[in-house]
Amino acid sequence: MKKKTFGLLACICLFCGSLSAQTIFELNYRSPGNPPVSALLIKYSSGTGYARISYTDTVLNTPVILNLDLEEADYFNSKGEKDSTLMVVRSVNPVSVATGKTSSYLPETYLFRLDPDAGIFIPWKLVSKPNSATENFTEFTSLPNALGTNKLIPLLPTYFLPTEPVVKAFQELGAQTRGGKRKTVGDDTSMYVIIVADELDKTISAGVSKDVKLITEMYSAVSFQLGFSDFNLITVSKDQFTKKGVEDALRSLKPGPNDIVIFHYTGHGFNDKQPKHPYPNMFLRTDKDHWEVGLLPTFTLSIEEVYQAIVKKGARLNLVFADCCNSTWDSIPAVTAGRLDRSVTRGTQVLNYDKCKALFLDTRASILVASAQKGEISRTGRDGSYFTYSFTKSFSESMGLLDPHPTLSWDELLDMTKAKNSFYINNRCVPKAEEKIAKCLMTPIVSIDKNIKPRVKPKPTPPHS
């Protein structure tokens, strides 16, 4: 068991890591049937995003800003073969930002091309009727411009109204970077994070190790953003990856009534055939080959037991996650997959302060999550396990300063995680032949208890006279 308590400096270093949410491009073009426009594309590596279109209405001589959703798709050449160096990105649902009404603007489809040196897809051309014999291309009137935060800020008035949450978030960021005091309200809160990870099983270790990195970066960034008094990270991994290691980590927890406790398991799991147990057991053994059924209780632990033990500690917010299989113990497969995303994003993540506060300081709840429902197998790949990757991606995308939604709840975040996980399962997962199934199935299950009574700190006993 490795325990680390991070002060402010360590949190800053972790905060500037690779928790990046999106790639941003500015384009200029004129597509058939539309006026000349400037476009801002906010492209998430997980296949979603949105576009802002800015142009002048020539009849009314007024500026127009539209919002469109972005949807990613494969590109196939004239022979019907998939071209992995190209990617189709469709814009859909044009809506006026000012009125909220659907626009008559004709949505475009963009063709992205992989830049092998940068490792990212970059807008190349507009394409009409892609993947067909009659597809046509339209060149951009200027080269695509990849934007970082400094270049983006001057463009905000072109693509966002002054009242939008995006503008407010950047204004607050600007005040902080100009020497203003960073807003912190969590100085009476400590965050405890226990990560239990099977990093020695070679069949899943690449994805599991990536999970550890993603989870550590995510919660350390939250701790820094909100100014928690302590960020306590306990990693149960490698030689400490045992039932005793987990039990010792749980015993070491002594949270206060305003604190946060997070438990995240990533590894192998299983379940029995009893209907009363929907959540899985953790398989806390690095040697998967030499053991007997009768020894299962010596190296397994139910995630429900962990949840109950943590809730009894009395913290204000408890999050318990199990990213593992939920099938019978004798069908634990070493299932791996390829890349989940086509390309990486660049830059660092700055979290939206108000959303961060709403999730971690304004919420009193206990949440139990498993990556797969009973009878299903969890999946992992080089980018991380499907569920953990979906969860951290959903968090970074919704917490980014460019996310247009003003609020975020745990229900919404976990719904986003389910949707993203479903996208990866349906579009990235290919079952192995020995599984004898036509398609991958993996359905996260969530339980949220918001009836958590506040626990009052005991008053100190006065000294005897």
Structure description:
With 465 residues, this protein is α+β, with helices and mostly antiparallel strands. It folds into two domains: 31-140; 190-449, Rossmann fold (3-Layer(aba) Sandwich), CATH 3.40.50. The chain is built from ten helices and 21 strands. It has helices spanning 8-15, 149-152, 156-159, 165-177, 205-226, 243-251, 303-311, 353-360, 386-399, 410-427; strands at residues 2-6, 22-29, 37-44, 49-57, 62-76, 82-96, 109-115, 120-128, 136-138, 145-146, 190-197, 230-237, 260-266, 269-270, 281-283, 300-302, 317-323, 365-370, 380-381, 384-385, 445-449. Strands 9-8-7-6-5-4-3-2-10 form a nine-stranded antiparallel β-sheet, with no helix packed on it. β5 and β6 (82-96) form a beta hairpin. α1 (8-15) crosses α5, α5 (205-226) packs parallel to α9 and α9 packs across α10 (410-427). The radius of gyration is 24 Å and the shape is globular. The model is unreliable at 6-20 (pLDDT under 50).
Topology (SSEs and partners):
Blueprint: E1 2-6, H1 8-15, E2 22-29, E3 37-44, E4 49-57, E5 62-76, E6 82-96, E7 109-115, E8 120-128, E9 136-138, E10 145-146, H2 149-152, H3 156-159, H4 165-177, E11 190-197, H5 205-226, E12 230-237, H6 243-251, E13 260-266, E14 269-270, E15 281-283, E16 300-302, H7 303-311, E17 317-323, H8 353-360, E18 365-370, E19 380-381, E20 384-385, H9 386-399, H10 410-427, E21 445-449
Parallel strand pairs: 11-12, 11-13, 13-17, 17-18
Antiparallel strand pairs: 1-12, 2-3, 2-10, 3-4, 4-5, 5-6, 6-7, 7-8, 8-9, 14-15, 15-16, 18-21, 19-20
Helix pairs in contact: 1-5, 5-9, 9-10
